[in-house]
Each structure stands twice: as structure tokens, then as C-alpha cells.
């Protein structure tokens, strides 16, 4: 059993490092650094737990997309989570909470999370990524018929409906394809 676990961990580490290589060459826009395990706080097993427990109802948002204060509030009220009950066992909740807080925007010094925090300035911190000032600004050109009235998107919260590489933490505007409308040309 033990041997098998280490084997899986090795395979996972290699695949994470490979993906990370792609990200680094892609400049500072990537959120991938939370995947690369350079931060001693990140355990690949926790990222699997996170994807399983927080990726069932929606895209598993990378921790660097929100500041720690917002994650803390979300994890403190999972019984009333945007109108849903998303409660977890205590041990899973604690593991995920630590993972989110350790890798939150403002805690690591790289690209997108830094931009999110800088754009927010002294303004109050929302619970939603989609209410961050940077987010609202970047998506202000998108008409309702492309998002809310688009049955294949419905909500800005569904990042991966439009951002082809959202799961890899890449949100480059040149990598956007809006379902039913096609590639985004700025
Ligand atoms: C039972 C389903 C469910 C589970 C499980 C769940 N969520 Fe959610 N979550 C929702 C719904 C519904 C919304 C609102 C989506 C919308 O407005 O389109 C949401 C929204 C969010 C948002 C705000 C997205 C935005 O609009 O910026 C965050 C952040 C979030 N969830 C984090 C989490 C985390 C962390 C977990 C795991 C602890 C989790 N969710 C588990 C249902 C769920
Ligand atoms: C309806 C499709 C759609 C959804 C859903 C969506 N986006 Fe976007 N996003 C876009 C488009 C289009 C742009 C480019 C806008 C422009 O340049 O005018 C963009 C731009 C961005 C940028 C700036 C990229 C850059 O190169 O500067 C970020 C970051 C981003 N989105 C993150 C997210 C996140 C995180 C989510 C989910 C919480 C999300 N987006 C949901 C369509 C979408």
C-alpha cells in the first residue's frame, strides 16, 4: 500500500512539474505556481482533495484568485454557501482552509494575484472573484447575450466555459473561446 502511494505521488509530482514548465514560459500571467509545490504548505494530496470537494458544483477556483479574508469567510459559512449547503467533515474543511489561506492572493508574490490585490486597493474585499474590481474591469466589454443569456455559460462564475486553460491556471485573453460565439477578438 505504502509503496503504491509513493509511486502515485511521484507520477503526480512529475506531471505537476511538467505543467509548471509550460506556465513559466508563459510569463507572469499564470496562476500555476500554486501547483508546483515550491511552497512547503502545498501538498499534492490536498489539491486533489480540493478538486474533489470544491470542484463538484463549479470550477475549482485557484486559491490565488481571492485574498485570505474572503476564503476565510467562505470556509466559515459552508452551510450557507451562495444558497447551497457545501458543508465538509471537520478534517477536510481544515485541510482545504489551510490550503486556500496559504496560497491566497496577497500571500504569494506572483502575477495575477498581485494584480487582483493592487486593483482592489483599499476597497472592501468581496466573497466573489467575480466581484473583484480587476475582474469587473477585465470583463466589462462582455454583453449579456454572451454570458448571462448564453445557455452554455449562464454565469461569470463558470470560468472554464470561456477560458480554455482555466484548469491550468491560465487566463490569457488570447485563450478565450465563448461557447456559441467563438474565439474572443478584442
Ligand atoms: C453544493 C454545491 C457547491 C459546492 C460543493 C461548493 N460550491 Fe462554491 N458555489 C456554489 C454556487 C451555487 C455558487 C454561486 C455560483 C453562481 O453564482 O453562478 C458558488 C460560488 C462560489 C464562489 C464565488 C465564485 C464567483 O462568482 O466569484 C467561490 C469562491 C466558491 N464557490 C468556493 C467554493 C469552495 C472553496 C468550495 C469547497 C469548500 C465550494 N465552493 C464548494 C456551489 C457549491
Ligand atoms: C463569458 C466568458 C468568460 C467567463 C465566464 C470568464 N471570463 Fe475571464 N475573460 C473573458 C474575456 C472575453 C476576456 C478578455 C476581455 C478583454 O480583453 O476585453 C477575459 C479576461 C480575463 C482576465 C484578464 C486576462 C488578461 O490577459 O489580462 C482574467 C484574469 C480572467 N478573465 C479571469 C477569469 C476568471 C477567474 C473567471 C471565473 C471566475 C472568468 N475569467 C470568467 C471571458 C470570460
Main beta sheet, described? 2 strands, antiparallel
Distinct ligands: heme C
Point out poorly predicted stretches. 1-29, 36-42
Mean pLDDT: 82
Please count the beta strands (DSSP E, at least 2 residues each): 2
- Rg, alpha carbons: 17 Å
* Strand coverage percent: under 5%
Taking the alpha carbons of the first and last residues, their distance comes to 52 Å
Instruction: List the secondary-structure elements in sequence, H or E.
Output: HHHHHHHEE
- Overall geometry comes to globular
**Main sheet: which strands, in order across?**
1-2
Task: Give the count of structural domains.
Answer: 1
**What share of the residues lie within helices?**
40-55%
Q: With helices defined by DSSP (H or I, 4 residues minimum), what is the helix count?
A: 7
Structural class: mainly alpha
Amino acid at each position: 500500500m505504502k509503496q503504491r502511494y509513493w509511486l502515485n505521488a511521484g507520477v503526480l509530482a512529475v506531471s505537476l512539474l511538467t505543467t509548471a514548465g509550460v506556465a513559466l514560459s508563459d510569463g507572469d500571467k499564470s496562476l500555476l505556481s500554486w501547483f508546483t509545490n515550491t511552497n512547503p504548505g502545498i501538498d499534492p494530496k490536498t489539491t486533489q482533495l480540493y478538486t474533489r470537494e470544491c470542484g463538484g458544483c463549479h470550477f475549482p477556483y485557484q486559491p490565488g484568485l481571492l485574498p485570505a479574508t474572503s476564503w476565510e469567510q467562505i470556509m466559515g459559512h459552508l452551510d450557507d454557501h451562495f444558497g447551497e449547503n457545501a458543508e465538509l467533515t471537520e478534517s477536510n474543511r481544515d485541510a482545504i482552509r489551510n490550503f486556500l489561506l496559504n496560497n491566497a492572493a496577497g500571500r504569494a508574490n506572483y502575477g495575477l494575484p498581485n494584480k487582483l490585490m493592487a486593483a482592489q486597493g483599499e476597497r472592501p474585499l468581496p466573497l466573489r472573484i467575480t466581484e473583484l474590481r480587476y475582474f469587473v474591469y477585465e470583463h466589462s466589454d462582455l454583453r449579456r447575450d454572451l454570458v448571462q443569456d448564453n445557455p452554455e455559460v449562464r454565469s461569470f462564475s463558470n470560468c472554464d466555459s470561456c477560458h480554455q486553460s482555466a484548469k491550468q491556471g491560465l487566463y490569457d485573453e488570447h485563450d478565450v473561446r465563448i461557447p456559441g460565439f467563438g474565439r474572443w477578438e478584442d
